[in-house]
Design a protein that fits this description.
With 286 residues, the protein is of the alpha/beta class. The chain contains seven helices and eleven strands. The chain folds into two domains: 198 residues, Rossmann fold (3-Layer(aba) Sandwich); 70 residues, Formyl transferase, C-terminal domain (Methionyl-tRNA Fmet Formyltransferase, Chain A, domain 2, Roll), CATH 3.10.25. The strands form two sheets. The protein has a seven-stranded mixed β-sheet, sandwiched between helices. The protein has a four-stranded antiparallel β-sheet with strand order 8-9-11-10. The longest helix is centred in the middle third of the chain and has 24 residues. It is elongated, with a radius of gyration of 21 Å.
């Protein structure tokens, strides 16, 4: 039997933590601390849903598990040192970890990225896949280095359906079993000292956060582009966006269809039709 690792886990929700925990236990390893990434950057404000997410994680927390909510990079580093982790597993954490933190776990840091690296490096890979209208996505497990998602790859799988009505919940039904399997494979490789395979930087692309203009629908764009814009915001659970001028007033566009459907028909910039299936009044954009 391989050595039992003390593993720290940084993630963003109860389902993600549970999936990583199960993969570790499958391979005989011991998660010793959970760390919830409650902000988008070290020292930054809490995410809007940080309180509700923390409650959900607590409700699902394994008995006796420490749950820490670091607010700064220094606090994160102290937590990792105090728990003497051999390996850190990260899934859905936006902070860019410096070498001083990456070097704390004895074996290093594994990152789970919901894209087929080197495509869609960065903090919002799934958002860009939806925005671009990709039919499928993927999962990559790689060694983390000091840049965003550029470290050597240990395991990956594509072909995960991105449904037209995609939500995090229905995506997880297909994606989280893949995460569990790939992470299990990667844990074995980590114990064996496998450095992984380098990424081809020439094939890389960056998936940053959505620009402010993406919150407003521009009817001069193609019907397909607007449809995917609406899908992206619905996936993000945007409570106020995207907004569009429709029938003389501003409305939040909740759902659209590229096929004939009940609702308001709009001719977009490419001449193609788009049906506004669901919308609601909204204030004018600032």
């Amino acid at each position: 039997m391989s050595e039992q690792l003390r593993i720290g886990v940084i993630s963003s929700g109860p389902d993600e933590f549970a999936t990583i925990h199960a993969a570790c236990v499958d391979k005989g390893h011991l998660p010793v601390v959970y760390l919830y990434g409650r902000s988008l950057r070290s020292g930054g404000p809490n995410l809007d849903d940080a309180g509700a997410t923390t409650t959900a994680i607590l409700d699902a927390l394994p008995q006796g598990m420490d749950l820490l909510l670091p607010g700064t990079m220094d606090g994160l580093a102290r937590s990792l040192r105090s728990h003497r982790v051999d390996l850190l597993v990260v899934f859905g954490f936006a902070w860019k970890l410096p070498p001083s933190v990456l070097e704390i776990p004895r074996l290093g840091v594994l990152n789970i990225h919901v894209a087929m690296l080197p495509r869609y490096r960065g903090p919002a890979p799934l958002l860009w896949a939806i925005r671009n209208g990709d039919a499928t996505g993927g999962v990559t497990v790689h060694w983390m280095d000091e840049e965003f998602d550029t470290g050597n790859i240990l395991a990956q799988q594509g072909g995960i359906l991105l449904a037209d009505d995609i939500t995090w919940q229905n995506y997880c039904v297909s994606a989280l079993p893949v995460v569990r399997r790939l992470l299990g494979e990667s844990l074995d490789l980590a114990v064996a000292g496998d450095p992984g395979r380098p990424q081809d930087d020439a094939e890389g692309s960056y998936a940053g956060f959505m620009e402010p203009e993406f919150a407003v629908v521009d009817w001069s764009h193609s019907a397909r582009a607007i449809h995917h814009q609406v899908r992206t915001h619905r996936y993000m659970r945007s409570s106020h966006h995207p907004v569009a001028m429709l029938d003389g007033g501003w409305r939040r566009v909740v759902r659209t269809s590229l096929s004939p459907s009940e609702g308001v028909l709009v001719r977009c910039g490419d001449g193609s039709p788009l049906w506004i299936v669901e919308s609601e009044p909204a204030p004018a954009p600032e």
